[in-house]
Predict the structure.
Amino acid sequence: MKTSDFDYNLPETSIAQTPAEPRDSSRLLVLHRGNGKLEHRIFRDVTDYFNAGDLLVLNQTRVIPARIFARKETGGRVELLLLRRRDEVTWEALVGGKGLRVGRVTQVEEGPEVQIIEELNGSERLIKFSEPIEPYFSKVGNVPLPPYIHEKLDDPERYQTVYAKEPGSAAAPTAGLHFTPRLLEELQVKGVRVAYVTLHVGLDTFAPVNEDNPEEHKIHSEWCELTQETADAINETRTRGGKIIAVGTTSVRTLESAGSLQSPVSNSPGANSLISNSPISAFLGPTSLYILPGYQFKIVDAMITNFHLPKSTLLMLVSAFAGRERILETYKTAIQEGYRFYSFGDAMLIV
């Protein structure tokens, strides 16, 4: 297996610059893993593929306005992109500016002082604020859109899911951007249960794999939580024969991280899921689960996801779920059919 096996050519015109309006009017490409059949639908049609007793699992993380600006004592501007909080005043961050070495102190515009206390990889630094930065977010923070989006986002809430609740992400779990409150209500009226997990998304998730062998790539850990309430809903759904549908690769990683604590029992012939009699339990903490082709899925039966960047760990994850060749062939069809790619793009349902 080589990283180049997960490469494909995407015209720049296929990269969505703005979100669909309304949210559920985006297109939906349905891939049936069993026979490779493709269906071209609208996202609000997703209800046709779920049954009463199924469980939809959503990541309720909320993107923080993590892009802030500070000034050096010389007046030079510094850009800080907060990645992970270590404690109340200490963060891992990407920094933009010259001379940002250990000990350097800058002043957040209309906010507290911040000092660089450790150099990490590349432009990553460990920084320490003179007081917690969160109370200043509404005044000094900006939502950090991905670098391939060049259009200004008039409404920052369009880069949040409608169910975003727990602040902590540097990027949105974009598969969930297609849901509206009404669509979620329709699913529940149909008898589809909804459960929530939390995984705070780091920018490293979207970074390309630079190693020739993807197995040599070090995936960064991300904090996640699966509550006992969600664990109970999963166990009840599996006992009754319902499907577990993960919305986004972040939900997949959270579910499978919790599922990895199970004791495997047997593989079901022809299935992509590992059947286990062991109940799933609550899970809280960092996960560095790296899903590559060959991985046996323990919890997830279907997933909703967007179209991912070439040579990314996310493309490798969906390839593990549906097969590399099938995914790349599906992407080729999606490009030909004019689907919109990446964060604000259209969606896939893999069943």
